[in-house]
């Protein structure tokens, strides 16, 4: 065991030891306390960016950045450990880190291919699909920094979305009022809405189906 730890703190493995330790701590905190749980959410951006096999950064798209980066660092660390044991002192040892990084990328590229299926967003829940729909306000007020509403998806299920409104129209929106979704703000993860009074909200084909009450943050 002492020899193992000694190897992790020696060149070339030490190049990846600290990043690998950070990765381990990140996932331990994520499992224990839910820290960073939103980073593995594949809504919209992750799924859309990963629609192509070569999309994303260096072909590792289609999964959250934390997943692909963790795979890359872990595999590169193992490759550097093996290279450090197999190659003695000399010029060859200096080539281990870039070679380990390349092997880590190759392994990650192969690993994310089947993982992309796990992070595909459910059809009908992409944010842009809700633009132009009528929603029902679920909070007591809607401001430029606060508000939620319920909107019906194509399959008849409903989703709780974050909404915002500004100007005099915002004062008209309260719980139970209808609003028209006219834009999506990707940076803030919310929709811009305006009051809508052109008749009742049309229910979906099966509003009591299994798709009810899904949350979309």
Automatic annotation (TrEMBL):
Transmembrane segments: 12-36, 57-82, 94-112
Keywords: Membrane, Transmembrane, Transmembrane helix
Domain of life per record: Bacteria
Protein name as annotated: DUF1449 domain-containing protein
Organism: Streptomyces chisholmiae
